[in-house]
Amino acid sequence: MFSFTAFSARRLALRSEDMVVWLWLTLVTSAPLLWLVRDTDGMPDPAHRDLLMRQEASRQTGGLLTLTAAERRLDASLRRLKEQEMSAARFPPAVHFFKAKPLIERSSIFKLLQKMPKGAALHIHSSSLVGAEWLVRNVTYRPRCYVCFTWDNSVRFLFSARRPFPRWDCFHWQLLETLRARIGDAAEFDNSLIQHLTLFTEDPDGEYPNQDVVWEKFEKAFIAAAGLVTHAPVLRDYYYQGLEELHKDNIMYLELRSGLSRTYELDGTIHDKTWTLNLFQEVTKEFIKDHPDFFGARIIISVHRALSVSEVRAAVKEAIQLKKDFPDVVAGFDMVGREDSGRSLWYFREALSLPAELGAELPYFFHAGETDDEGTDVDQNVLDALLFNASRLGHAFALAHHPLAKELSRKGNIAVELCPISNQVLKLISDLRNHPAAVLMSEGHPMVISSDDPSLFGTSGLSYDFYEAFVGIGGLKANLGTLKELAANSIRYSSLPAHLKDIGLVMFQDQWDAFIADNS
Ligand SMILES: *[C@@H]1O[C@H](CO)[C@@H](O)[C@H](O)[C@H]1NC(C)=O
Ligand SMILES: *[C@@H]1O[C@H](CO)[C@@H](O)[C@H](O)[C@H]1NC(C)=O
Ligand SMILES: [Zn+2]
After folding, report:
1. Which residues are catalytic?
2. Centre of ligand 2 from the C-alpha of residue 62, in Å
3. FRET pair for 163, CA 20 to 30 Å: which of 60, 176, 239, 475?
4. Which residues line ligand 1 (CB under 6 A)?
5. What are the TM regions of this chain, as residue ranges (predicted)?
6. Least confident of 67-76, 181-190, 454-463
7. Which helix (H) or strand (E) is 264 found in, with range?
8. How do the domains of the chain map onto residue ranges?
9. Measuring from atom 4 of ligand 1, which residue has the nearest CA?
10. Which CATH architecture has domain 119-129+236-462?
11. Pocket perturbation via mutation, ligand 1, pick of 129, 134, 229, 237 by most ligand atoms within 8 A of CB
């Protein structure tokens, strides 16, 4: 103690007043610890230890939920399964998802998570909503689909009544039907097309040595899919198929981030954002008619952070109007694209303060802190998102080491949208047991689980991300209460008005009760 004091004093050049404070603090903070020690044999009181452990566990996500007898039975069996998986030679959350995927698919916990009602998906981008498999095997087989391979080994698609004109990035357009017939091995060719639309690879570490490389492929895949998805007739089926994939994974509601890009018809007609919102609304209604246990879907209008301040200001203004025109469809606004290489929220402050300036309503759902570059302008996005009154934070990977922002987000009930597989594939973290959200989960920070870009990562629905969060990030400590809370949170922290949240939560509870009855 003495030598340590002398050491600290030398290193920190403490002044004597500081030293007094330090000694005082040491005494005060160690008092409860001393009290824990029984004076008989110096061993801490086991009953007190139990109490502290229970108190600590009660702070985690779902820690205050009381489980029913049936839920406790299921919880006990989940725990046994988790112990087994944690002691296996290859623990899936510690392995890159592309390698872990087959292991996860064999897991009994995963199979249970697939059946579990998961509430809402609140962070998915529209251009990666539907699996690449469907895009290639269904959409590219439609008539009049042209394909072109660019100089940088990327691919473009375009539906057109006649051969498209050459463009800067595409000189040689070929009719897919003709090309396929000429190539012969259609299955092999289709697999190569799928490769262009996803990040999936057998050798993720070799192929994506760093964040720059993986983000480059990421943006390329987005552009490749655009020509297919923005064809108006395709878009209609695409939304429906996307809702189908979510519903199959027991998800009842969606908030989809979309730029509402212009869509095109075969004859060259171009549709605007209003047309797209109408389409989205129609498809959602039709889907609910076919699946009465589905609750709905909304859009978070998103623009790329590569735009200029005046462009973003115009986009915010337009979004305010669209929110007025489609109050039940438009949830709010976000800025997308890689944060590390893009512009910070603070850079766009003049654009983003427009709603407050005009007294208009436009809730924000900002991507913020999807970075491991601590102390940069981008790292500051978490605090800035909160200063702009964001309703939720996308990723907020950086939040755990911003104590003040973390406090503000907790007090303001601003949930973090945790997308574990996205963070791993985009190389913010390799072993998911070390994800900073483990800290947030252990203290019950407002949080929901989502999948970000399912088609690019080769996932579908939310079960894969729930698996990583529950088994990897939460560890043995996360229990059935954690799962229930995370799922219910997705309704609670959605953009729905209070009366719809109430209905949604009742619907969720019914689904949950049926799930417990079937599986306990
Ligand atoms: C493609 O999907 C549509 C609806 O989404 C379906 O009607 C059609 O049969 C599918 N076509 C193929 C070839 O799978
Ligand atoms: C954020 O909310 C506060 C309190 O409601 C308000 O005073 C402020 O103008 C809002 N700021 C922005 C940028 O919307
Ligand atoms: Zn995202």
Report:
1. 370, 395
2. 31
3. 239
4. 138, 141, 237, 241
5. 20-37
6. 181-190
7. strand 263-264
8. 4-59, 119-129+236-462, 133-217
9. 237
10. Alpha-Beta Barrel (3.20)
11. 237
